[in-house]
Amino acid sequence: MKSHTQILRLAVACILTALTASVAFAFEGKIDIKTTTSRSDEAMAMTYFVKGSHLRIESQIPPDKKHKEGGTFAMIINMESRETIMLMDEQKMYMVHKIPEATAEKAESKAAEMDFKPTGRKEKIAGIEAEEYAGISDKKRTEIWVTKELGKYMMSNQGKGGPMGGKKAVASAWQKFAEQGNFFPLRTIQRAKEGAPEDFRMEATKVEKRSLADSLFAPPADYQKLEMPSMGDMMKGMIPNR
Questions:
Q1: What is the CATH number of domain 4-228?
Q2: What is the side-by-side strand order in the sheet with 44-51?
Q3: Helix, strand, or coil here: 202?
Q4: CA-to-CA distance for 59 and 61, rounded, in angstroms?
Q5: What is the spatial distance between Cα 73 and Cα 136, in angstroms, rounded to a whole number?
Q6: What does the pLDDT look like over 19-40, one tens digit per residue?
Q7: What mean pLDDT is predicted for residues 13-22?
Q8: What is the spatial distance between Cα 90 and Cα 69, in angstroms, rounded to a whole number?
Q9: Mean pLDDT calculated for residue range 225-239
Q10: Which of 175, 189, 227, 228 is 20 to 30 A away from residue 40, measured at CA?
Q11: Can you tell me the distance from the alpha carbon of 231 to that of 200, in angstroms, rounded to the nearest whole number?
């Protein structure tokens, strides 16, 4: 069974692989997102704040075997400076990581991988009109409900290192489809085949369009920056002077 941290990594990966340089989001406000997988009994809830070229992702991690008291997760993404800021609320500290420059993607997707077709089904999700498309992504049937009301869903290959120290984040076919169609996904479901039980679902449960304070997208003034030493700095002093 996947831990809550693993589910959070998966959900954040879906968001982080949606980022590229110089993004200015058309939507300003708050989006509540719920993620479920077939390998976990509990859903993971996230709050997604959007303003200009800034994002903030927050999540309350429920208790599990490794984290008996649970915890909180918060990440700020600044696409102007190409930085992610990880907030550590318990320690009142934060870490800054540079987002790698996006590389030009090779035309390696087969036609079938991008062959998402409208099903004709429409539905309001979190108060936003959405239309369903279905296709194959990650070798699974993928049903993606999309809208153009929230602006374009941007994606890029993140290069080395996925979110939270995970594996390399590579955009899935459904993410490429959303980006190329100027769509924003409000619900994404993956299953082995049509009619099979759901393996993964990520869905917006509430969309609130409103102005957000700039302070949401910066570390609190009383937080200390945690500097991670580079490999060169770590080697200093380990080799005797000659």
A1: 2.50.20.10
A2: 117-125, 128-137, 140-147, 184-191, 198-209, 29-37, 44-51, 54-61, 71-78, 83-88, 93-98, 224-225
A3: strand
A4: 6
A5: 31
A6: 443 355 678 999 999 989 888 7
A7: 47
A8: 12
A9: 59
A10: 175
A11: 38
Nearest of 162, 169, 125 to residue 143 by alpha carbon: 125
DSSP 18: T
Do the strands 54-61 and 198-209 form a parallel or antiparallel pair, or are they unpaired?
A: unpaired
Q: How is residue 180 annotated by DSSP? A: H
Nearest partner of 157 among 173, 167, 170, judged by Cα: 170
- Cα-Cα-Cα-Cα dihedral sign, residues 148, 207, 62, 76: positive
pTM: 0.73
Bigger pLDDT: 191 or 169? 191
Please state the rounded mean pLDDT for residues 61-76: 71
Percent of the chain with pLDDT over 70: 65
Tokens at 181, concatenated: 């169609």
Fill in the amino acid letter for 82.
Answer: R
The Cα angle at residue 12 between residues 167 and 107, in degrees rounded to 5: 60
**69, burial (CB in 10 Å: exposed 0-12, middle 13-18, buried 19+):** exposed
Whole-angstrom distance, CA of residue 147 vs CA of residue 183: 5
- The greatest distance separating any two alpha carbons of the chain, rounded to the nearest whole angstrom, comes to 74
Residue 149's pLDDT is 87
Per-residue pLDDT, averaged over 178-191, amounts to 88
Angstrom distance (rounded) from CA 128 to CA 184: 11
Looking at residues 14-18, what average pLDDT do you find?
51
* pLDDT of 110: 43
Token duo for residue 210:
């409103």
Backbone torsion region of residue 23, taken as left when φ is above 0, otherwise alpha when ψ lies between -120 and 50, otherwise beta: beta
